[in-house]
Design a protein that fits this description.
By secondary structure, this protein is α/β, with parallel strands linked by helices. It has two domains: 16-140 and 270-290, Rossmann fold, CATH 3.40.50.720; 144-265, Dihydrodipicolinate Reductase, domain 2, CATH 3.30.360. Helices cover 41% and strands 22% of the residues. The protein is built from eleven helices and twelve strands. Helix 1 (30-42) crosses helix 10 (269-286). The longest helix has 19 residues, at 294-312.
Length: 314
């Protein structure tokens, strides 16, 4: 179902007849438990309607924890909801997002949207064809103070270069616990696909679209990207999920005529997810696409696919 943009409701956008928009969650993994479900339950402008998962017992457990409906079929969730929120592996997310858009659901997507440019393009095209809003949850673009910091830097000029690193310890040495170590798609795709979208989501709005990329492989899943941007500025990003815990960390530094600007620390990821939902509902109400939507997600996928292709030739 699509929003009546002229309707007035209590939240950022109203559902049919002015009712609060209903949000259904697809996925039951660690992120769904820690971020998506708590944020949806706490959101003041929408109703958390239900959960679908590939493992029915896990979906039932999560739905019961929040007193919402458990769905045995994703299409039934789409029929009941105004928004489909995804906490699924990218190659499971993409075809379901196409189905959700066809059912009239606005799309709150996770990154990466897909792991092939063709699948990500299918999602963006479906959102456009069915006139539904979309937002990709890119943490740094919704968390505070990083979201405001990105907008501030995008307003500056005279950049010289930039450097980013996102070194996660998702796959630590044997015997060390990690909530995400059992993720098959992360094992297969590594830091390039899991944390690469975060780095690109900051570099691109500040320095311009990526016009060329050169990828180099390091130890384990470590990848270094050398990027040229539409502004003529070059940047680099070092990405991994297998860093030693003592070496893990996130940072991004921009250097230019006005000085050196470092990405601030952030926290409150559930709060950031709530702001992503706010942005989606605003886009739905106004009909103005959000710059962090499926089109941007498709562009990120194109860049990552190109980098992955270079790594395959090494």
């Amino acid at each position: 179902m699509s929003y009546d943009f002229s309707a007035s409701g209590s939240g950022p956008a109203a559902g049919p007849g002015g009712s609060r928009p209903r949000v259904g969650l697809l996925g039951t993994g660690p992120w769904a438990h820690r971020t998506h479900a708590p944020a949806l339950a706490a959101h003041a402008g929408s109703d958390f309607a239900g959960v679908w998962g590939r493992r029915p017992e896990a979906a039932a457990e999560l739905a019961d924890a929040y007193g919402v409906k458990v769905y045995e079929d994703p299409d039934a969730l789409f029929a009941d909801c105004d928004v489909a929120a995804f906490a699924l592996p990218p190659d499971v997310q993409a075809p379901l997002a196409v189905r959700a858009a066809a059912a009239g659901c606005h799309l709150l997507l996770d990154k990466p949207v897909a792991t092939t440019a063709a699948d990500a393009r299918a999602v963006a095209d479906a959102a456009a064809a069915h006139r539904v809003a979309s937002v990709v949850f890119l943490t740094l673009r919704f968390a505070e103070p990083t979201a405001a910091w990105v907008l501030e830097q995008a307003g500056r000029s005279g950049w010289f270069t930039a450097s980013a690193h996102w070194l996660g310890a998702v796959f630590p040495p044997a015997g060390e616990p990690s909530a995400y170590a059992d993720s098959p798609w992360r094992k297969a795709k590594g830091g390039l696909w899991d944390v690469g979208p975060h780095a690109l989501s900051v570099l691109i709005p500040v320095l311009g679209d990526v016009t060329s990329v050169r990828a180099t492989r390091g130890p384990s899943d470590l990848v270094q990207l050398a990027l040229r941007h539409a502004s003529g500025v070059v940047s680099n990003a070092v990405l991994s999920l297998s860093a030693p815990r003592a070496a893990a960390g996130v940072g991004l530094e921009l250097r230019g005529a006005e000085g050196v600007f470092a990405l601030p620390d952030w926290s409150d990821v559930p709060g950031a997810y709530g702001r992503a939902l706010d942005a989606l509902l605003t886009a739905a109400r106004t009909g103005t696409p959000d710059p962090r939507g499926a089109e941007f997600g498709a562009r990120l996928t194109e860049i990552l696919e190109e980098a992955e292709g270079q790594l395959a030739d090494m």
